Each structure stands twice: as C-alpha cells, then as structure tokens.
C-alpha cells in the first residue's frame, strides 16, 4: 500500500494536518507511527485504512481486507457482542456459516466467550477494546491498522496484540500501529514512521538484520511437537537443550540457568521434530549451533 503525496485537512480552508505525505508498506512489514499528541497519527492511520479520504493525493494498492482498530472502540451501539461481530463478519464478506464460525473462533480466542450476549455499552473499556480487535481479525487482514491498541487493555490482553500482529505478518499482511506508550519495543524489526509538523519521516534502517533470538521453555513432553510447529511456521530452530527451569521471581528476572547441556544428537537429546516424537535424536541440519535459542 502506498500513500502518494497525501494531504489532509478536516475543513475547507482549515489548516493542513498532513502535507505531502509519501510512504509505502509491503507484505510482511510492520511500521510504528510515532509522534506527539495531536500531531496527526490517527489521521494518518485513518487515511491508510480508508476511513478518511485524502483532501489531495491518493492511497494506492490498499489490500481488499483491511482491519481497522480505532483508539476507542465505539461501544455506544445497541447490539450484543455476538450480534455486532456477526454483522461485521457478514460485512467483511463471510457467509452466514462462515460468520458464525469466525465469531465463535475470535470470541473464544480473545476471551470474550462470556460476553457474547452482553450489550456493547455495558462492556468495560478493555473488553470493548477486545471486541474492536476481534472485528478487525474476522477476515484475515491484508492490512491491519491499530491505533494505540494497548490503550485500556489489561496486562494479559496486551500480550495478544503482538500475537495478532505476528499472525497478520505471517499471513503476508502488513501492519501499521501507533503507540505513545513505548509498548512497541515488543516489535523488534519494525519500521519507524514519525509524524511532526504535518509531515512524515522514516527513521533510516539501522542495517542490522531483522532477526531476534527468542528463548523459550516448554514441558519436556511437548518439545518434539513445539519444534515441529516452529519449523512449520518457518522459524529456524538453532538448538534444543535440557533445562532445569524455575520461573524467575519477577517477569523481568534473570534467565534460568541450565543444569546440563546434552550433546546434540547424543544421549539425552530431545526427540527429533517432525517424526511424531518417536524418540529419534535431533540430527537434522539447522538444529546444531552455538546458541541454545530459537530464531525466525
Ligand atoms: N474530526 C476532526 N475534525 C477536526 N479536527 C480534527 C478531527 N480529528 C482530528 N482533528 C485534529 O487533527 C489534528 C491531528 O489529530 P490526530 O487525532 O490525528 O492526532 P494524534 O497524533 O493521533 O493525537 P493523539 O496522540 O492525541 O491520539 C489535531 O489537531 C486534532 O485536533
């Protein structure tokens, strides 16, 4: 999707909120929109999502399916959660059965199961925000636009946001997200767009590879399945090690220390992925390596 010399003002002869904005985002990319309060971040996102039309210039190659999550979900509507989401799913192009399935999946996934029959105005702010996220995901979006998505969400629900972003990127979609709270440190590799004085500038890429190493601990019995799933998702599994894991005392506490590291493929090595957990040793290319971590 490309913003091509886009200008926006809300009123004829009003001041220009955005001037000559040129920007482009492609499949699998995420851009974080930064800038002071009132500078025009929401305006830019609404232009990208197609909620606003440019006063001048144009937005081209916008994907057919756009998920738009406004900063505040408009909860002042006389529908129940299920009724609202089903209507949104039909608008997004689902058949009646498809809509039912999509709504069942996303209400469950976002922990909205208990609120299906609750009317929107009766929802707490955080729950209403989750309904906003659900409606944006009902049809896999080619472009997901999130305006301050962490606002109003509790700690557990905040974890959902990077998860949904990753899902869209993995599906070949693009993501635009504004954030003034610094939550986006959880999105390594994102492009940074800054809005100031009506214009948009992009921070030059650092030149570092957009790769991150993620350490994770899983129950021993689930190692083979986890490795298989990670590989199926296109991640590169560097190494699997035996691990005495005790949860850190705080969420930011020190990483646990391994008590032993079996030789890869040797006695004590984990069963190989993709072989149905049959107890074979890890001996495929890509498993061995110096760092006991998982990357994508
Ligand atoms: N519907 C509207 N009518 C008139 N002016 C508007 C409208 N929406 C936004 N504005 C003005 O446009 C400017 C940019 O607003 P915008 O909401 O895009 O900024 P923002 O960077 O997203 O702010 P925040 O961080 O506070 O959400 C502001 O001066 C705002 O008052």
> How many DSSP E strands?
12
Helix content: 10-25%
Total helical segments: 7
CATH architecture of the largest domain: 3-Layer(aba) Sandwich
Biggest sheet layout? 6 strands, mixed
Organism: Micromonospora mangrovi
GO molecular function, one term: ATP binding
Pfam family, one: ABC_tran
Region (Disordered): 242-296
Concise account of the structure shown:
With 296 residues, the chain is an alpha/beta fold. The chain is built from 7 helices and 12 strands.
Which key phrases capture this entry?
Rossmann fold, nucleotide-binding, single chain, AAA+_ATPase, transport, ATP-binding cassette domain-containing protein, ABC_Transporter_VariousFunc, six-stranded mixed β-sheet, binds adenosine-5'-triphosphate, 296 residues, 2 domains
Give the topology, please:
Blueprint lengths: L1 E7 L9 E7 L5 E5 L6 H9 L6 E5 L5 E4 L11 H11 L4 H14 L15 H13 L5 E5 L7 H4 L1 H11 L3 E5 L12 E6 L2 E4 L10 E2 L8 H10 L3 E2 L56 E2 L1
Parallel strand pairs: 3-7, 3-8, 5-6, 6-7
Antiparallel strand pairs: 1-2, 1-4, 8-9, 10-12, 11-12
Bound molecules: adenosine-5'-triphosphate.
What does this structure look like?
With 296 residues, the chain is an alpha/beta fold. It folds into two domains: 2-202, 3-Layer(aba) Sandwich (Rossmann fold); 211-296, no CATH class. It is built from seven helices and twelve strands. The strands form three sheets. It has a six-stranded mixed beta sheet with strand order 5-6-7-3-8-9, with helices on both faces. Strands 2-1-4 form a three-stranded antiparallel beta sheet, covered by helices on one side. A three-stranded antiparallel beta sheet has the order 10-12-11, with helices on one face. It is globular and about 65 Å long. The chain starts with a strand and ends with a strand. Adenosine-5'-triphosphate binds next to helix 1. Adenosine-5'-triphosphate (ATP) is lined by residues 10, 17, 35, 37-43, 71, 180.
């Amino acid at each position: 999707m490309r913003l091509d010399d886009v200008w926006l003002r809300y009123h004829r002869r009003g001041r220009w909120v955005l001037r000559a904005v040129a920007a482009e985002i492609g499949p699998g990319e995420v851009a974080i929109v930064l800038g002071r309060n009132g500078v025009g971040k929401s305006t830019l996102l609404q232009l990208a999502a197609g909620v606003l039309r440019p006063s001048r210039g144009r937005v081209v190659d916008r994907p057919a399916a756009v998920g738009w999550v406004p900063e505040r979900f408009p909860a002042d509507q006389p529908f129940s959660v299920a009724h609202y989401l089903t209507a949104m799913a039909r608008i997004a192009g689902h058949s009646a059965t498809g809509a039912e399935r999509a709504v069942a999946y996303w209400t469950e996934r976002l922990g909205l199961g208990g609120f299906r029959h609750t009317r929107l105005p009766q929802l707490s702010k955080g729950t209403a925000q989750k309904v906003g996220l659900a409606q944006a995901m009902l049809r896999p979006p080619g472009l997901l636009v999130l305006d301050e998505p962490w606002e109003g969400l509790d700690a557990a629900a905040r974890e959902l946001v990077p998860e949904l972003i990753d899902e869209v990127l993995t599906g070949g979609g693009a993501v635009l997200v504004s954030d003034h709270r610094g939550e986006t440190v959880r999105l390594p590799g994102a492009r940074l767009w800054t809005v100031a004085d009506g214009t948009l500038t992009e921070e030059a890429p650092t030149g570092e590879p957009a790769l991150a190493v993620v350490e994770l601990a899983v129950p021993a019995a689930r190692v083979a399945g986890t490795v298989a799933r990670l590989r199926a998702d296109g991640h590169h599994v560097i190494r699997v090690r035996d691990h005495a894991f005790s949860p850190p005392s705080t969420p930011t506490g020190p990483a646990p220390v391994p008590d032993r590291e079996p030789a890869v493929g040797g006695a004590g090595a984990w069963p190989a992925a993709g072989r149905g957990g049959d107890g074979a040793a890890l001996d495929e290319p890509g498993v061995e390596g110096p760092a006991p971590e998982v990357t994508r």
